[in-house]
Amino acid sequence: MKGMKFLFCLLTAILATFFFINGKAKADTPNNSVLRYIRDGVKNKGWKPAAEQNWLSKSTMLPKNNYRYGKARPEGIVIHETANPRSTITSEITYMYKNWRTAFVHNFVDGNSLIGVADTDYQCWGAGAIANPRFIQIEQVEVHSKDEFAREQLNAAKFAADQLNHYHLGAASQRKTIWTHDDVSKYLGGSNHTDPINYWNNSAKDWFSGIYTINDFIWLVNQIKNNTLTK
Ligand SMILES: [Zn+2]
């Protein structure tokens, strides 16, 4: 009887360990059509996030203002969208370098490229007086196909994951380490823009018959950060 009991306990322990390890290693299956498409691209079509291009040598005229807690102390990342259906990533950057006194961000992204245009160790000027001293800011350029949109999200999420790691900011978390410009306007103030909400809504509806929100973006960032996107 005693032997049976021991065997039973041992079996339970082995099963529990098996399920624990299996459960830990596996990513949640995304219940979102955009995320499923991105994951399938990475898993089965050889998609890789775009390697960051460094254009900082062109940015010497930009002011170098520290974040509120100091140089190289950002607190998170703000996601923008240009709201211009006719621009390209290079036309946006050319415009920004000419008009930096009005606004500038750290990075631009589209379906094929991720380009660093201002040093992320210093604040940029894209989301108002409250957010600028706190956050790194990246601008999504409008793209015009299903694959480009999916890949743009992958590129932007990889950028966000890399920044969270580089500046030791922990996990992607809504209105803590990851903000939309819309979140800034609604919850911090100092701005009234609502990007990238319309762009994300329209793109998800047009190409995926679905929705795409900041929670989906955050899911993607954390999967990339934890290396679990294709597990
Ligand atoms: Zn914006």
From TrEMBL:
| Pfam families given in the database record | Amidase_2
Leader sequence range is 1-27
* Record domain N-acetylmuramoyl-L-alanine amidase: where: 62-197
Which Gene Ontology BP annotations are present? peptidoglycan catabolic process
Keyword list, A-Z: Signal
Q: Which GO terms describe its molecular function?
A: N-acetylmuramoyl-L-alanine amidase activity
Q: Which domain of life is it from?
A: Bacteria
Write the protein's name.
N-acetylmuramoyl-L-alanine amidase domain-containing protein
Recorded source organism is Oenococcus oeni AWRIB429
